[in-house]
Amino acid sequence: MRPDPSSVVCERVRMQVSLELDDELSALEKRMLDTHLSRCAICRAYAEDVNAFTTRLRAAPLERMLRPVIVTRSRRMLLDRAPIALAAAIVVASAASVLQLAVPGARPTSSAITQLPTLREGVQESRQVVIDGRAFKRHRGSLYVF
After folding, report:
1. Which residues of 122-145 are buried (b: 16+ CB within 10 A; e: fewer)?
2. What radius of gyration, in Å, describes the C-alpha atoms of the chain?
3. What values do phi and psi take at 23, rounded to 5?
4. Mean pLDDT across 106-129
5. What is the pTM of this model?
6. How far apart are CA 23 and CA 54, in angstroms?
7. Residue 8: CB atoms within 10 Å
């Protein structure tokens, strides 16, 4: 019976093959890897290929780059989190307002007393934030060009 190359154990072993090349496995993990490779021909062939490729790559002479490589963070990642951050800020502000009302004898921290929303208004505001976030996700492709 041949082992299934897509099994969870084989996938884990294939990740550990790379870690072993960088000497990042513990003694127990190395032992488990060696045991699996002695039984699984598919993973053993994979490990041999990775070892051969890595050895050739590490032995190759370094090349001088003609231009520097500049890695920038995508703006899209930051924009994806904006609706979540806005919703979280509103929830925290609403919770703080409710807690301030619930504590007997609490005095306002500022000289001007602000009118706090009711629970119903807070729920409506939270729902609107979610709706706005979904609309933002649908239309962000047309708003921003990357």
Report:
1. beeeeeebeeebeeeeeeeeeeee
2. 28
3. 60, 45
4. 62
5. 0.43
6. 13
7. 8
Separation in Å, CA 31 to CA 2, 12, 25, 53, 135: 22, 14, 9, 23, 53
pLDDT digits (tens, 9 = 90+) for 7-16: 888 888 988 9
Structure tokens at 136: 């933002």
Residue 42's CB: how many other CB atoms inside 10 A? 16
What is the H or E stretch that residue 139 is in?
helix 119-143
Contacts of 39 (CB under 8 A, 6+ apart): 3
Name the residue ranges covered by the structural domains of the chain: 8-59, 75-143
- Look up residue 142 and give its two tokens: 């047309």
Token pair for 94: 């609403």
Distance, CA of 28 to CA of 129 (rounded, Å): 50
